[in-house]
Amino acid sequence: MEVFAWGANSHGQLGLGFESELCMTPQRLTRHSFAPQLVRCIRGGGGHVLVLDTSGRVHACGWNNRGQLGLDSTEECHNEFQMIPSEYFEEVPIETVSCGWDISGGITLTKRLFVWGSNAFQQLGICQRGFMAVRRPLPVRLPKEEPALAISFGLRHCAVLTQDHKIYVFGRLRVMDPPPIELDITATTLHRCNTMKIQVHNPNELRIVALSSGQHHMLLKCVDLSQEGGSTKRILSLGDNKFGQSNAFLFEEDVRQLAVGWTHNAALLRNNEILMWGRNCYGQLGTGSISAQQAVPQPLSLRLPDGQTPARVHMGAEHGLLRTTAGEIYTWGWNEHGNCGNNSTENVYSPTLVEIPGRVKLAGAGSGFCYAISESSVN
């Protein structure tokens, strides 16, 4: 197994042992604190990256100006991966991780929430002096000790989905007026912080099961309990809608996965169709061109080469990455830092194959960079 990374590297976020403006083609990592064959997921932020392994250990690399690596370090950058000490999570394995611009979080197997990084907008759920930046994982108790299920970060907000399908939002996320009629949104406080509580109006008909945040918006994947077997064709949305990124839809097929960039979205459906909508000034919707008005308020289908089936979609700030079931990687969109991996800095308007040795089993994306783990060894 080999690890490859490309794109922006100004904070050492590619884990290559050095900082540089960019890497326009996939570069093989020679040193890392994790075993590539044991990686469960890769999550990227503004200039940092977290890797979660199958033992529940978290490995961090890149920008650390706000402590977002969770290493209890004051160094500005770490250009090689280091494991966050398990004692920081009270020796409990981590089940899921997430990155925002300069913030990170994880949820343990016991459903306990930990956050670290910037708290400039109280997005850690803490309202106390001396907590502008938190440099090691900090446990956050939710109201009534509710277990956390998922976490998602925007530029200035943190959203936590609980096991009973409520969402708590810390920090700043402006909700449209009026809000979606399917949701009840109330203001509350948590640890003296202003907190937004979101739940469905009728829990017997609808249930929130997943969430994904953009810069200033958020998509919610819902189960329609009125349908036999529970349909997941409906998504709801909150936040800024300047480019149509907060438009909500009832699709014809169930949603397998949501992926959200700064101001654009992707929905991977059960029939393997990928629908894209939102901002399209850099080709980030992968439709073959940019949009004159920048905004695409209605979903458009992402076209892949014949015979390719999508396995997973990842969104950077303004670019996209797709891994196919055959283990190939396609990228498109904003390419200023070589984040599309095609040996160029020109924007890419359609999904384009990235040359990576071997079959890719796992991938991830940050703001302006990408990662892939290949099953083939490179000499």
Automatic annotation (TrEMBL):
Coiled coil: none annotated. The keyword Repeat applies. RCC repeats lie at residues 1-55, 56-110, 111-164, 272-326, 327-376. Residues 2-371 form the RCC1-like domain. Keywords: Guanine-nucleotide releasing factor, Repeat. PROSITE patterns: RCC1_3. PANTHER family: E3 UBIQUITIN-PROTEIN LIGASE HERC2-LIKE PROTEIN-RELATED, REGULATOR OF CHROMOSOME CONDENSATION. This is Secretion-regulating guanine nucleotide exchange factor-like. The gene is LOC6903204.
